[in-house]
Amino acid sequence: MKDAILAKLCAQCEDYYAEAMRLMSKDSVKQMWDREWVQQVSGKQAALHAQTHYYQALVCKQNKEVGQEIARLTCAMELFREAQ
């Protein structure tokens, strides 16, 4: 698949995880989830955010946008560290 499509797919999946986090954090259902589940969803959301930046950096590389590529790769590395 093309890198731009992969970036869009990762961004959409990240949005789904963000929505899941929002719904899991509601007071009416918060007690139903173990703390590990919330951490798991949060980690996956951060990982997908990092993947979005990574694939977008590959798009920037193809377009010869070196500065933006470096910035996105730096951001992706920080987000991958957070996701661990």
Automatic annotation (TrEMBL):
Residues 1-84 form the BRO1 domain. GO terms for biological process: mitotic cytokinesis. Pfam families: BRO1 (PF03097). The gene is LOC103523362. It comes from the Eukaryota. The lineage of its organism: Eukaryota, Metazoa, Ecdysozoa, Arthropoda, Hexapoda. One of its GO terms (cellular component) is endosome. This is Apoptosis-linked gene 2-interacting protein X 1-like.
